Each structure stands twice: as structure tokens, then as C-alpha cells.
Amino acid sequence: MRACLPMLLPMLLATSAGWADPGCQPTAEAVAAALNAVRSRAQQCGERIWPAVAPLRENAVLAASARRYALELAARDRVDHIGAAGDSLRVRLREAGYVMRVSGENLAGGPETMDEALAQWLASPAHCENLMLADFQEFGLACVSGPGRFQRYWVLHVAAPAAARP
Asked: Does the reported pTM lie above 0.90?
């Protein structure tokens, strides 16, 4: 099955629209409010305390990239930063048409709400740092439902465009 997955994945993704759960995907405004509430306060990420940072703005290309990857994760029933074709976040963003200077990716499998996903990310030092990195200026978030063990797959892409400087 693993050898067949790269060939089957486009077909699975094409039919996965039926997995979409309208209650799973928060609005861009709700996501921005939740992410920026976190960023507006200093956060302890592991041993390090990160100061409050500027708010993020939603980016449609990052949101589309996050959605495509959330659908792939649901189709594969796994949470992994390396895609089925061996692609990294950098490759996924380039293929989506986002020219980035810096980027990060937070994934979660299972949380039912945005608040639960954020709590999971804040409890993980590396994911917390992605939420608090001042270099990041834009975000795209997607949540999709799938038939597998996680049931909900969350993908957050945070980045700064190549031409932008903080």
C-alpha cells in the first residue's frame, strides 16, 4: 500500500471533500483572533519565555496550502511533517506559489476545537515557538475531518514572504 500511496493520493484527495466538517474549520477571523490573543502575551515555551509579538494576518495562499495538506493527512490517517511524496513544508509552500523568507508548520491530530489545538501546540515547546516567532507575519489554518483514528486533522502554516522584513 505504501508504494501505491503516491499514485492513489490525488484520487483520495479528490474524493475527500465529503470528509469536510463545517464545524471543524473555524472562520479566518476566529483563527486570527485566537492566534493573536496568544501572541499578544508573553508565553513560556519549554524553558524559554517568549515576549509578546505583533499579530499575524491571514493569507489565502497559506490557507489553501494548509487545507491541501490537512486533506492529505486525513487521507493517509497520519500526522507527519513529511508528505507522502517526501515533500517538506518548504516544497509545499513553493508549489502553492508562496515565496517565503521563513516558515513553520504546526500539526495536530484529534483536537475537536481550535482552542484544543492551540492548547496542544502551546504545551509543545517547538510548536509554541512557531506561534511566538516574531519573524512570522502571516498564517493559514485548516481543519478537516477524516475517517481514521484522529478524526480531525489540523494544519497551521505560519510564514513571512520573501520581500517582507519584520
From this structure: no
What is the grid cell recorded at 10? 490525488
Q: What local confidence, expressed as pLDDT, does residue 38 receive?
A: 98
Q: Is 79 exposed, middle or buried (0-12, 13-18, 19+ CB in 10 A)?
A: middle
Count of residues in the chain:
166
Report whether 96 contacts 68 (CB < 8 A): yes
Q: Are 140 and 104 a contacting pair, CB within 8 Å?
A: no
- Paired with 48 in beta bridges are 45
Q: What are the pLDDT digits (tens) for 59-72?
A: 999 999 999 999 99
Cβ 57 vs Cβ 137: under 8 Å: yes
Distance CA 117, CA 122 (A): 9
SS3 36: helix
